[in-house]
Amino acid sequence: MLETSALVDRELRCVACGSTFMFKVGEQIFFRDRQFTNPIRCRACRNQARQARQADARLCSECSATWVLSAADAGWFTSRGLHLPTRCASCRRSRKHSAVKKD
Question: What beta strand segments (E) does 1-103 contain?
Fold first, then answer.
């Protein structure tokens, strides 16, 4: 493992937009300590990707809680020809368990 004193600011190229960005020593330490891989996107593109993942915030039709349907989950439903859920996972589970108990 590299010593902190051996680290220097590095210039990286964003795979999304092609711009260069600085990967500062403090960020390198943060990434290393958490065993993250080096970033491949600049901060603006990382923020944009994060917002896109969270963009499908939904309101549960049963309890009115806000919940997020991830792109992976949406893909799972649509690949099977299913409608996207309108209830949060908690309400879907409780409805599933109550249906099982009635039988």
Answer: 10-13, 20-23, 57-59, 66-68
**Residue 82, phi then psi, degrees to nearest 5:** -95, 155
Tokens read off for 101: 């108990």
Q: Are 68 and 58 in contact (CB under 8 A)?
A: yes
User: Is residue 53 pLDDT above 80, yes or no?
Assistant: no
Q: Is the alpha carbon torsion for 39, 41, 47, 51 positive or negative?
A: negative
Domain boundaries, the chain: 4-51, 56-102
Q: How far is CA 66 from CA 18, 75, 77, 91, in A?
A: 35, 20, 19, 12
Residue with tokens 């991830």: 70
Residue 8: enclosing H or E segment and its boundaries? none
Comparing CA positions, the residue from 72, 64, 73, 19 lying closest to residue 42 is: 19
**Per residue in 26-52, pLDDT tens?**
999 999 999 999 999 999 999 888 877
